[in-house]
Amino acid sequence: MPEDVKVGFIGLGNMGGGMSANILKAGYHLTVHDLDQTAATSLLENGAEWADTPAELAVSCDVVFTSLPGPREVEAVALGERGVLEGMRPDTVYIDLSTSSPSLIRRIAPIFAEKGVHVLDAPVSGGPIGADTGRLAVMVGGDRAIFDRCKPLLDAIGDKPTYAGGIGAGSICKLMHNTIGYGLQTVIAECLTLGVKAGVDPKNLMEAILNGSVGRGRTLRNSLPDTYLQGIFDPPKFALNLAHKDVGLALELGREFGVPMSVANIAFAEMTSALNRGWGNRDSRSAMLLQEERAGNVEVRISKEKLDELTSE
């Protein structure tokens, strides 16, 4: 994508401010809009132009980005009065960077298509520091050809733009990513508070966890790819009956010190159900098959070749 492409950016908050600045640094002609014009001060000082409305911005741009708090704001800015759609021209591109609703972007895309406008959903992960430094994962859904066309521009925003699939796929990936993170946050809080209350210094506890397989990132990089994601549970990397014993001992410790362990109890119940299937000598990840059944027999499998591509990065 040539740098003479005219880019519009709407939403200059904690994330949008950094991303738009990096687009400007990459040499693109940039027009910006935000409810608070003072948020654009440094951008305007460095050569960006201002538009009073999303529609006014879109009229002059080949690619328009939005980075907004959520679905309500995205819908209003994209489809509302003096919104993005009103100003866009055929064969231009609208890219929503917000963490928003996959159903909404799937509803927006055909409306824009009636006007000949392409749509990508491209939520990002990496926080404000990543937005400032350009070290963001960008999870992109939409037409692959449009992703390829816009890839140089996405490279200005993040160091890891990834094509996720059809429209809405980027938003789905981001929601799954964040929910995994906050689920882990909950069980980490349980285990840290129990560990400290049971008598371990917080620094020593953290050091021990960081030095273990969890802290080294082996769950996502090794354990799951070697077992669950390939459907290989025999011979076990770590047997279910041993994992069940370990979590059971942690729950006993929690009862002894009066620390509630809600997430750990759910994990223990899952492993107990898996044991009752006769899976005790299989790999502990076999307990994850129970959720596949509950989800309607959804199989999550990735070939060894594709896994090697993922884990070698």
Summary?
The protein has 313 residues and is an alpha/beta fold. Helix content is 51%, strand content 12%.
List keywords for this structure.
about 325 residues, alpha/beta, Rossmann fold, N-(1-d-carboxylethyl)-l-norvaline Dehydrogenase, domain 2, 2 domains, six-stranded parallel β-sheet, three-stranded mixed β-sheet, 15 helices, about 50% helix
Description:
- It is a single chain.
- This protein has helices spanning 16-25, 41-45, 54-59, 71-79, 84-87, 102-113, 127-133, 144-157, 169-197, 202-211, 218-226, 240-257, 262-275, 289-294, 304-311; strands spanning 6-10, 29-33, 49-50, 63-66, 93-96, 118-121, 124-125, 137-141, 160-165.
- By secondary structure, it is α/β, with parallel strands linked by helices.
- α2 links the parallel β2 (29-33) and β3.
- The protein has 15 helices and 9 strands.
